[in-house]
């Protein structure tokens, strides 16, 4: 994929236009000659997808995009069609997928299918991957997800406050 970045250089704040090919910056800043920004390219991703005609959710990994993965899944002659729920970028998608499958073993229905709803699955994967930034494909699920994160955060704070008599205790 070829992209173009137009924006400010991180070193000198000048406007730059930089071409990016397959995740590599093809130019330096025309003003300062430095690297205008850092770009991280992940090896792949872990995905949660849903097919309303199938039990539970499917959790897997891909070294391509989730759209390409879904296209492949949908072309295998399954009933219904898969839709993306959430993805997590990954530098080691196989390892991350295994970690998630292992931790969610008690919810496993068959192969890569897990008996979880969308928000539950997103929350569990998020925690298993140490709060890696999720990418959502549905506004309502995203909203519910962050509301639950905020609720949990407040609950933890309440517990911490209740426990510490000493106001300086962490
Ligand atoms: Zn610059």
Quick overview of this protein structure:
The protein has 170 residues and is an alpha+beta fold.
What do these coordinates show?
This protein is α+β, with helices and mostly antiparallel strands and 170 residues long. The protein has 2 domains: 1-41, no CATH class; 44-153, no CATH class. Helices cover 33% and strands 26% of the residues. It contains 4 helices and 9 strands. It has a 6-stranded antiparallel sheet, sandwiched between helices. It has a 3-stranded antiparallel sheet with strand order 1-2-3, with no helix packed on it. The chain is flat and about 55 Å long. The structure holds zinc ion.
